[in-house]
Design goal:
Number of strands: 0
Number of helices: 3
Helix content: 55-70%
Strand content: under 5%
Structural class: mainly alpha
Radius of gyration: 22 Å
Amino acid sequence: MPPLITDVSLEKSSKNQEANYFSKPSYSPDLNPIEHGWHKVKTAIRKELAKYEFNLHKAVAAAFQYL
């Protein structure tokens, strides 16, 4: 298996080759609106699972009725 490329090793190699290195900011689910949508979907499915005896297909269909 090849060695993993870390930020430090990438930064060093980019300096040696006169390339620009941009570090990416840390990921925050609060800044991504789709994460809030998926949270609502998962919450609705969890609520419906018990009603349909943990049949996932029926629970998902019922959950999407309300969304």
